[in-house]
Amino acid sequence: MRKFSKFVLGLSLAVSCASVSAAQEKSIPKVLQIQREFLKPGRSGMVHQKTESAFISALARAKWPTHYFAMSSLSGKPRALFLTSYESLEAWEKDGAAVAKNAALSAALDHAYYADGELLESADQGVFLFREEMSLRPRADLSQMRFMELTLFHVRPGKYKEWSEVVKMAKAGYEKGIPESHWGMFEQVYGGDGSSYLLLISHKTLAEVDKGFAADKDFAAAMGEEGMKKLDELFAASVESTSQQLFAFSPEMSYPQEEWIKADPDYWKPKSMAAKMPAAEKPAAEKKDKP
What we know:
alpha+beta; 11 helices; about 290 residues; Alpha-Beta Plaits; 8-stranded antiparallel β-barrel
């Protein structure tokens, strides 16, 4: 184990990365919904992709404006994550209400949920709010990204001030020592245990992770010996536990926005997926129940 604190371990991988957000960098959504599906043994891969394609087909037929992208675990228990961004909790509410009013879409989604549920051990979801002051140059476009690291920090009760100082010091150290660093921080407001913060770091290749580990010395030099000592002390005092996981993007289970598809059609709309997409003509039931 390296000398640096666990918080620095998480941030040291942030070289050439991007945070989750919408298509426009000037308007980063404030709400992030993450759904987790824990899979039964042997139910991941193409088996899960097949059931997820039903959701994609239903949304595509309805020309639904809310998009999401999926990731599959490369560490920990076999599971998939589905990330959806909203401008506000109100926007999330309106999206759900619109789905409920669309009879054809609701029926198709219910059927897809039933089939997908046969593959799952369990499922849950969390709601997170974007914390701009704790993020460092978060990027909006993830169309070229292929991997994501997620680090969850459980902050001790009553230690928000110390936690904020940890993040502030880390940001200053990376600005000075590794100026090309990027990351996004989100606070979990629903679905978690106590005060939790999610650090999201995405990569185009895993070689960027190698580069991040190699850059630790630059961060330490920027912080100085006394700065690193103070950072470690504050981290130990404010953070109860951490969990770090690695995921790979899954275009076969994603419903990406058009900008992402145009940026890299071979990746976000592979031939196997395109073959499953519905024809341009809508079925009669859909014509009667427009969103």
